Amino acid sequence: MDIIEKGGVITWILIFYSIIGVTIVLSRWIDLLADRPLPSSGSLPQWPASRQKQILLAVQQAQSNGLEQTALRALSLRLIDGYMRRFERGLKTLSLLANTAPLLGLLGTIIGMISAFRVIESTGTQVDPQLLAGGIWEAMLTTGAGLAVALPLLIFLHTLESSIEKRHWRLYVRVSELIHEPIENQGI
Question: I need a surface site. Which of 62, 73, 81, 130 has the fewest CB within 10 A?
Answer without folding.
Answer: 130
